Amino acid sequence: KTLFKMTEHAFRSKRVMRRNRLCSAAIYFYFTTVLISKTAALLQQQQQQSIYETTTRRRSAPYRSRMGTSLAQSAASSSVLDNDFDRTGCTARQFSLGYDISLTRFAGSMGFDEVIDWDYFTNPYDAADELDRDIVEPPPFDPTKPKRTKSSSGSVVRLFLGEFQGALASKLRAQGMDSRVLVKEFVGEAAQEIAKNEFKSIARMQSMLVEDMEITDALNGEWAANGAGRYLQGKTEGSTREDDASVVSFYKLLAQKKAPFVGIIGALNLAEYDEDDMIDPNEWYRFLGVKPPVPGSIWIVYEYAGLNTINGYLEPATIRRANIPMSKGIFGMPVAPPSLPVWSERANYVVKGIMKGSLEALAYIHDKGIAHRSLGRSSILISSVGMDKAEAFSPYTTIISRLLMKFSDFGFSGDIFESSNDESFCSRARGFGIDVRPGQSSVAASNFAFAEDLHALGFVFLALLLSSLAEVPSPEYRLPPLDEDSLQRLLGEIFKKNFDEFQEYCREEESWDRVVELLDKDDGAGWQLLQSMCFARERASELQGSFQLVTAQALLANPIFN
Fold this sequence. Notes:
The protein is of the alpha+beta class.
């Protein structure tokens, strides 16, 4: 500081000669450069010390960057950090908007509904004798009241498409990998809890992936340390070379193992945007067409696996073909889309590709000890191993080797063996006569956790078969309702869980003749699969007291997949 003032005084002195003034200016510049270098070195030393302490203490104290709070700190209550289950560094890695990632367009938004199934009982509630209560059918007070109700959570998740920038993007492209990302903004208190839960479950599965492949750099803490220091290192040194290498290696791992879940790369730090008064909020409207970020929201950066879900596939192929815009020929004449592949090839793709891939994905996450708890048509992505993620979604695609099924939206997921800690889970289990007490782990509780996911996936499969493989007489033809609520009401209330009657109902619809024929093969193996999944919770109730489990892995042996 003294040298700085001395050179400044010499530079501004009017009594020195011109030559001396030039000399003083050079000295001034030299000492200023030294001061800046020393300051940068000090910051780097402090950063390395922070990374070292974070690594040696196994991340017991979450990393806090100079410009903003690490997302790991906001999820500090999560057992991910306490159990050292973030070997990829995704919960601490923070990307800078602009320097690391640019947002290219707004992709949509999601809300969350709470679904409640209602039952009436003959005797009043008594926790001690709850399992002995008898359900009254039909509901005696108001028979017109629905047995299933939905209410909105009020929380919103906005989706943006983005792309890595700078050196990281160049390194990914040089390796033939995709530099695009999906970014989600979690707004509202409930949505932020969902974000933390998503971090917890996916970080755990990614860490197990690292352990399975024995990635040395990740196992010794390098990936986590590089991720924790990325944001500050980028600000002070203008380079994130070490963490760039970790991210590229992680991308290779996801591609090599064909991970059946959408991986998390890190979080997007908007501290600079929030604190900069010079930024015009209208820029978001002009470039992205939506309102600016909500202060305090959580932004998560995911690998890009496309935006096509099973929900968009639930339409007869004939109708999907009719909706494809006509191309123009040599002389500008309209040219109709090509003919669809034969039905048998499309059925093979749906059953042995989409359905089997989804069941394998469920078996994978269950094997890692995770229950999804909110599986649905919109949380199962139909992706591809190539750069064109929409390739596998086309009604013309029948090559299974190009298909990659991925689960997303793990916001309500959790540890299977800790399911009894959730009071609502215990209540649902008791509704099926399974005695699960809060905080008490048991085979019955784990079995019911497996069964809930299988039940949800079973209704997805049911809609997939009856819609995508239906042969409608014309594009204007409308099939019977196949939304989840309609199918649940059909099986549960109209046919009283009698699957034989439901089969007869399907046989009456001519558009489903070939689907019924497919499910009838091998002594009705397809019907057995659907029944086992849709009524998995009832089966879990029958098996309580034994050590038998209802598992996705066991259902993969069904002849329909052979």
